[in-house]
Amino acid sequence: MITLEDVARHAGVSLATASRVLNGSSRQVGLALRTRVESSAAKLGYRVDAAAQTLARGASNVVGVIIQDLTDPYFAAIADGAIRAADLHDMVVTLGTTYRDPEREIALVATLHAQRARAVLITGSRVADDYMIGKLRAELDVYRSSGGRVAMIGQDLLGTDTVAPLNREGARELALAIAGEGHRRFAVLAGPPHLFTAADRTSGFVEGLSELGLPAPVIVHGGFDRDGGLAAADELLDMRADVTCVFAVNDVMAMGALAAFRRRGVAVPRDLSLAGFDDIPSLRDVVPELTTVRLPLSRMGTLALDLALSGEAERRVEQIAGQVVLRESVGRLGDAPVDTGAVAPPSVVAS
C-alpha cells in the first residue's frame, strides 16, 4: 500500500510538507511544491486518509443529520433538502435516526462530536420534558464549544440556529378555511399531548374555531404516525360523534384515518371530510386528494444546513409559514360559508 512517506520521497519533500498538501492543513504550501506533491500522489495512486485530514483540519467534511423516523415522508423530505444542500458545500451527510427516543438523540450528538462532524442538524418535535431538553442542550453546548455548528428544525428551545415552522398559525388558518366551506362540527386527531408540534397544531385549530364562535372540536389523542391515526379514527367512529370534518395533526395520521374510514364504510368526503398538515410528497397518490397545510419541507432542510454552515456568530431563527391547500377530501356544506366577520381570511390554495 502506498503511504504518505512514499509520496514525500517521490516528490522530494519532507513528510510534513506532503501532509500539509494532502491532509488539508491550514498552513500554506507554495504552488510549486503543492503541484509536485499532488503529481506524485497521482502517479503512485495514493489515497488520502480521511482520519488524517480530520486531525489536520480540526473538523471533517461530514454533516450529521438527525431525524426521528426515516420511514416518515416528512423527515425524508427534509433530509433530502439537507443532503442536496450539503453537495453544494462539498460536504457529506451522515444520517441518524432516533426512533423518537430522546436518549438516543443525545447519544447521536455525542457520536458525531467524537467524529469531529462539521455541523449537526436536528429535526423533530420536542417533548414536554424539561429534563431531557436540558440534557440535549448541554450536549449541544459541549459540541459547539469545540467549534461544531448546530441547526434545529422545530421548536426554538435549544439555543441554536433554528428553522421554526409556524404550526399553530397554520392550523388556525386551516380551521378558518374549512369553516369557510360550511363546516361547523369538528374532531381533531390530536397526536400525543406531550409533543409540542401536535399540541401547537391542535391549539391553533381550536383557536381558529373559537374566533368564529364555533363549538370546540372533539379531541382524540393517539400516536403521531399512520397507525396512531388509524387507531384514533377508529376511536372517534366508536364514539359516534356528531361531526362533519376531521383534522389530523399530520398527514401520515390523516392517511391512517382514511384507511380506518374506508374499512368502516365511511366515504370521504361524502360522509366525513378529512384534513391533515405538512403536504408530504406521497399525498399525490392519495384518493381523494387530501386538504392540508403545505410546508416547504425540502427547503427547510436546505435552509437549516445553510444556517449551520454560515459561520455567523449571531443566532438566527427562521420562521416558516404554512399555506392551506384545499383539496377534494374536504367537501362543501350548504350554500353559504360560515361568516368569518372581522377574522382575517387565510391564504388558501385550491388544488
TrEMBL record:
**InterPro entries named among the record's database cross-references:** HTH_LacI, LacI/GalR-like_sensor, Lambda_DNA-bd_dom_sf, Peripla_BP_I
- Gene3D superfamilies on file: 3.40.50.2300, lambda repressor-like DNA-binding domains
KW Transcription (keyword) present: yes
Q: Which Pfam families match?
A: LacI, Peripla_BP_3
Q: Where is the HTH lacI-type domain?
A: 2-57
Coiled-coil-forming residues are none
- Keyword check for Lipoprotein, yes or no: no
GO molecular function (one): DNA binding
Q: Which residues form the signal peptide?
A: none
Keywords recorded for this protein, A-Z: DNA-binding, Transcription, Transcription regulation
Query: By its UniProt entry, which PANTHER family does this protein fall under?
Result: LACI-RELATED TRANSCRIPTIONAL REPRESSOR, LACTOSE OPERON REPRESSOR
Q: What is this protein called?
A: LacI family DNA-binding transcriptional regulator
